[in-house]
Fold this protein.
Amino acid sequence: MRICAATEADREAIWNIFHDVVASGDTYAFDPGISRRDALAYWFRPDTHTYVAKLNCFKQSSSEQAERVVGTYILRPNQFGGGSHVANAAFMVAPDAQGQGIGRAMGEHCLSEARRLGFRAMQFNFVVSTNRSAVRLWQNLGFKIVGTSPDAFRHPEKGYVDVYVMFQSLL
Amino acid sequence: MRICAATEADREAIWNIFHDVVASGDTYAFDPGISRRDALAYWFRPDTHTYVAKLNCFKQSSSEQAERVVGTYILRPNQFGGGSHVANAAFMVAPDAQGQGIGRAMGEHCLSEARRLGFRAMQFNFVVSTNRSAVRLWQNLGFKIVGTSPDAFRHPEKGYVDVYVMFQSLL
């Protein structure tokens, strides 16, 4: 797997992942019907570093190797002014590529990038409590739950569920 | 005092308050040098309800009464999609009009508006812990501290200080 800064050429693959992840409506507080344009504007906001995770794979009709974008993440200041030393990040893995450690690899890459860029901490503002694999992954990578908003997410099957703020110092 | 929806005619007064409040850099995570254009775009975002608090006052050179904008607040969904039932709000009072209960009056008005608009809860994402009067006011109005991000705000005099997430159900 290779994780690198996203380029124009990755936009279509990112939109496909974004659309698939958001359509389920069970992990992210985006409108599931968000347009391609709005989604990419958010993911490539001027203050945002955008990355992709690529896997080598064989093209179906030949033995030629190709790379496939299987995940993407963004890293940016969580706030402006006096809050800009804390990073925020968001991660998405293609639904058919989940369970292969791509989220973990991107998480580790992201923490390293955040340190390189001089951020002093990282915060996730909106981790849906029923997204157990994400909560567990972030805890494994050093994040702590520092806040709980009761019933702050309407899960499509589970109804109103809690949302966590997760945080870790990078010092 | 009168609290009502902001109009085009209030933009100059709102910008003056916004600028004065943000310039101090000790309560809000905005760039203290934010432009008028960016500030008003944020305060009048399409998904945002914008209000002003007006006080009757006498014009200096006559006995004619006039209204002065002494405070402003915004109310909007804190998140999209599955998080849109929780409201977010932000409040600003003109520095020379503080300590007169304008913040409290706007807070009560805001909670009532949020209920009227059908929000199920309200969350403040970024209450600087050293802003004691704000923390106390929100607690008096029913908010609880549900999260603490350590050292997440760089106060211009006090250095790195904690930031609270404050929340209350409206049901």
